[in-house]
Design goal:
The structure is a single chain. The chain is mainly α. It contains 7 helices and no strands. The longest helix has 39 residues, at 56-94. The protein is elongated and about 65 Å long. The chain starts with a helix and ends in an 18-residue tail after the last helix.
């Protein structure tokens, strides 16, 4: 076993419980905490040459965990902002001027009921302005698979909007990128 492997295993055993508790107290879910812990130790392994000796190693690992947690929070905030922006854009596309706030909430709720894959596909078209070919390349799918999935996602969104009593016509749905949902 190499010296680096031994050093990593020693610091891992000595700090794992502490770093896990540190992350768990600061994350919204156990899954997020597990992600932070895993990423922390991946970085520790990659930077094993920078690991200080002795008791300083524990503090260094805490510093790595702190940075990972900060990155995790920034990512979560960006993701939330993207969802808010997309919800607002969807509301602008389908909302009725007279009942804009009621419609916006109904659209956001209908959109939130869709499976994550549907939301992602619709967002890639409406928000990112990607076409089927680009989405297929990005997701590693055939264009036909993207066409089918996008059709199904649109149909589920339409049903969710009907359940929410959001009505619109085809002329109401103008996407800024020139593409239609």
């Amino acid at each position: 076993m190499s010296d680096d492997t031994q050093r990593f295993e020693a610091v891992y055993r000595a700090t794992y419980d502490q770093i896990t508790a540190y992350a768990a107290r600061r994350c919204d879910s156990p899954q997020d905490a597990a992600d932070v812990v895993a990423e922390t130790f991946v970085i520790v392994w990659r930077k094993i040459d920078e690991l200080p000796p002795g008791a300083q190693a524990r503090l260094w690992v805490y510093g790595v965990a702190r940075n990972v947690l900060a990155d995790h929070r920034r990512s979560a905030l960006r993701r939330q902002a993207r969802h808010r922006d997309l919800d607002a854009e969807m509301a602008d596309l389908y909302g009725d001027l007279a009942d804009r706030s009621v419609e916006r909430n109904a659209i956001a709720q209908a959109f939130a009921t869709l499976p994550e894959d549907d939301r992602e596909l619709l967002a890639l078209v409406a928000w990112e302005g990607l076409d089927r070919r680009e989405i297929a390349a990005m997701l590693g799918l055939s264009r036909n698979a993207v066409r089918i999935r996008l059709h199904r996602a649109r149909r589920r969104l339409s049903r969710a909007l009907e359940v929410a009593d959001v009505r619109f016509t085809a002329t109401d749905a103008v996407v800024p990128t020139g593409r239609s949902l």
